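Sequence only, no structure available. Ideas?
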Amino acid sequence: MKTLRPHLFLFLLLPAVSALAQEVMPTSESNTNLPSASVPEIVTNTPPSVTTPPKPVIKPKTPSTGASGIALLGSFNGASAGKFSVSGRTLRLSATEGTSHPADDWRRNLDFGMTQTRGNSDTLRYSLGLDAVKDQETDLFRFKGKGSYGESDGVKDTENALAGFRYERLLTPTLYALGNIEWMSDTIADLNYRFTGILSPGVRLIRSETTVFNLELGAGYIEENKAGDQNGYTVGRAAATVEHIINEHVLVWCTGEYLPKIADPEIFFVNAEAGIASYITRDLSLNVCFQERYDSAPVEGKKSSDSLLSTAISLGF
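Reply:
I predicted one. Tokens follow.
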């Protein structure tokens, strides 16, 4: 009996020890409610985004049209290969307020000039010319015709006529090709007719808002009849054209070409022209022009040089 008492005592003590252990030791459920150790937060210093302000839009300067509705400044921008030919010039005005034609439409000009004197000498001079030009992005077409007549003291001293067609094709921004045919006659110089056909490349050396400078170098063929003597031969050709806008209403130009006979360079032709145009309105201008034609082999008894100073009113339609 004495040996069973310790075991019985331990048996009775076990539930008490177990209950005491549950009171002292926290359960796993209570551990979840304990505050956890805080982890330091990593803060990155991101620079604030910088917004670049938009660049101001600079609008191109629009040329003033003035009361007449014309603006020569900027007329050469966007135009095709050639605004000129040696036997006459053309100008594509910018499409501004007051424009009566689209920029790529046919533009026609009628020129009329007349001079008459009475007194110690009686003279009568008049001239008539017509130009039609269609200028597209890469192609230019031009028809022209003009004639002059004059008398001095009842004697005819001026009678000539000219007609021609010119085509230009833009190849690159600076290079173009052209074909030109021309027929002319001059009764006073005994030139029954002269037909000229030209093929030539051209280069645009200067092309700004106010100035154009072109050079052309090529070859062609001339067929002519002087006082009943008919001849035909090949010729070379070198030409230069300059046109400059002085202000919004005034334009000046100068052209020249040299045509030597290839088989005999001592036979040659020189054609030159210089003039000024003052635009009263977009379709009306006053033109003053000086022309010089030189033939190194004229008909016997005739002069090599023919000069003409003319004043004309030009009407666009």
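Residues 84-316 form a domain with the Porin fold (CATH 2.40.160.40).
Hope that gets you unstuck.
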